[in-house]
Specification:
The complex is a heterodimer of chains A (about 60) and B (about 375). By secondary structure, chain A is mostly helical. Chain A contains two helices and no strands. In chain A, about 35% of the residues are buried. Chain B contains nine helices and six strands. Chain B has a six-stranded mixed β-sheet. In chain B, helix 1 packs across helix 2 and helix 7 runs antiparallel to helix 8. The radius of gyration of chain B is 30 Å and the shape is elongated. Chain B starts with about 30 loop residues before the first helix and ends in a 17-residue tail after the last helix. Classes of the chains: A mainly alpha (about 60), B alpha/beta (about 375). The interface between A and B is large, with 39 and 41 residues.
């Protein structure tokens, strides 16, 4: 039987991947990352992790 | 009819005394105000407003709340827990009294306008305990309920997690500032792949917090533009002539001063680049030199001949022209966190500059 993924861990992993992707693009000078752009991305990512965690606990 | 706190009558004097517990149903943080409201038969909102108000008076509200959180049992505490009148409860009451005395001792110096010594120890300690409980709550889902031992354990674990995260953040920040730009990104991506892959097999939830901490610290450093390749310390440059003047000055952390007041500068455009990771960069020019500036500051301010521009992601540009017979310094500056100051020999004059004063002379050497 196919095992269901752990949703909070999956969301957290995707957020970490997204943050890593942004950092890598800045690291190879593909984009010029500024604080005004990074702050909302970081807040949204952390918010998504907390939301996924909280919703999974309510079940 | 005579009554006692809680609304009971004299007929009820033989009943077991009402017990102060933290409410489980009516709680915002730990149920302290909800429990007190129920005990005194008053709307808990009054206690909440009082706690918040006291938190702004030397932090006494915060300290008292934490003391109550630790010492007042939750209503869901097991039946075997010590009740009022038992040795455990008497000890708790004594500790509450001590906490109140300590809280007032912390608050009074503020109320009297001095004596920061007690507040300097008590409030940070209270904030640390509160932060520990909050962090552990977020990490594990175990809220501030249960007995004092449980809460103390959670606070300690939370503080431990905070310390580990600070350590990881420092490593990430230093690696992002000193290493190649892709280094931290590669570690974060690796962690992300591991977390996503493991979510389908055996979740690696413990890896999430270190990975996010690393990503945030590295991202902050990259976004602000901190680069520590130039070293750490104070640098003071006073070139004698244009031959000694380099086109690029760099410093990682510290203060960089480039004083050109005694430098024999040629007529026409002279490019200079200043790079500083964290700290202050100062450029002092002769009165007869025009400065055209293109400056980027991640977090901090640019003070250009008295004109102040501060904030986050400050991008300051003043590309003034000058007559061909005049020296024009083409300044390109990058500051991660800190300040860039540009002024001439009248430095003190610019410090007292009023931006609204129209009579203030602009750079006299630059053409209109």
């Amino acid at each position: 039987m196919h095992k269901r993924p752990d949703i909070p861990a999956l969301v957290a992993g995707l957020v970490v991947l997204a943050l890593g992707g942004v950092l890598m693009l800045d690291g190879v000078d593909a984009i010029d990352l500024t604080l005004e752009a990074f702050a909302p991305i970081a807040c949204a990512g952390v918010g998504a992790i907390l939301l996924a965690n909280g919703l999974s606990r309510d079940r | 009819m005579a009554s006692r706190p809680g609304g009971g009558s004299l007929e009820g004097m033989n009943e077991t005394p009402k017990k102060l517990t933290r409410s489980r149903a009516d709680r915002v943080v730990g149920g302290v105000c909800g429990g007190m409201g129920r005990y005194f038969n008053v709307d808990p909102l009054f206690f909440r407003i009082g706690a918040v108000a006291l938190a702004f008076v030397g932090g006494a509200g915060l300290l008292l709340y934490l003391a109550a959180l630790v010492l007042v049992p939750s209503e869901d505490q097991p039946a075997g827990a010590p009740g009022v009148g038992e040795p455990g409860a008497q000890r708790n009451r004594a500790l509450v009294i001590i906490a109140i005395v300590v809280g007032l001792a912390v608050a009074f110096p503020f109320l009297l306008g001095g004596g920061l010594l007690l507040a300097g120890i008590g409030i940070p300690l209270a904030i640390l305990v509160g932060a520990g409980v909050l962090v552990w709550w977020l990490v594990s889902g175990e809220g501030p309920s249960g007995d004092a031992g449980d809460i103390a354990r959670r606070a300690a674990l939370g503080v431990g997690v905070l310390i580990v995260c600070c350590f990881i953040a420092l490593i990430g920040a230093f690696a992002a500032a000193a290493g190649p730009g892709w280094l931290v990104a590669a570690f974060v991506l690796l962690a992300g792949v591991a977390i996503v892959g493991a979510a389908f097999v055996q979740p690696l939830r413990w890896l999430v917090l270190p990975a996010v901490t690393l990503a945030l610290s590295g991202g902050f450093v990259a976004a602000v533009g901190i680069d520590v390749h130039g070293g750490i310390g104070n640098r003071d440059y006073r070139p004698a002539s244009s031959v000694d003047l380099r086109d690029h000055y760099e410093l990682g952390i510290g203060q960089l001063v480039l004083d050109l007041r005694d430098t024999d500068l040629p007529k026409g455009d002279v490019p200079v680049k200043l790079d500083i990771g964290v700290g202050d960069a100062e450029l002092i020019v002769p009165n007869d030199v025009c400065v055209a500036t293109d400056a980027e500051v991640g977090m901090g301010n640019v003070r250009f001949f008295g004109h102040d521009h501060g904030g986050v992601d400050v991008d300051y540009e003043d590309l003034s022209d000058a007559a061909p017979t005049t020296t024009r310094l083409l300044l390109k500056a990058n500051v991660g966190i800190g300040q860039l100051r540009v002024y001439d020999s009248r430095g003190e004059f610019y410090d007292d500059f009023d931006p609204l004063d129209e009579s203030h002379p602009k750079q006299a050497a630059c053409s209109a």
